[in-house]
Write a structure and sequence with these properties.
This protein has about 50 residues and is of the alpha+beta class. It has one domain. A two-stranded antiparallel ribbon has the order 1-2. The chain is globular, with a radius of gyration of 12 Å. The mean pLDDT is about 85.
Length: about 50
């Protein structure tokens, strides 16, 4: 897993990357003001290992 901060248009986002960078990206969005830590790491790894 790789974590980094991205700033664009005055908004700062924290991102995490899993899997092969050559695979297509998947953007997971948690609603209602929740943060990325609500996505279980095992779930993210399973998506990445499936090439999705």
């Amino acid at each position: 897993m790789t974590e980094r901060m991205i700033e664009t248009s005055g908004i700062e986002l924290c991102t995490e990357s899993f899997g092969d960078p050559g695979d297509p990206p998947v953007l997971l969005i948690m609603g209602l003001g929740a943060s990325m830590i609500w996505w279980e790491a095992d779930f993210c790894r399973m998506l990445a290992e499936g090439g999705r």
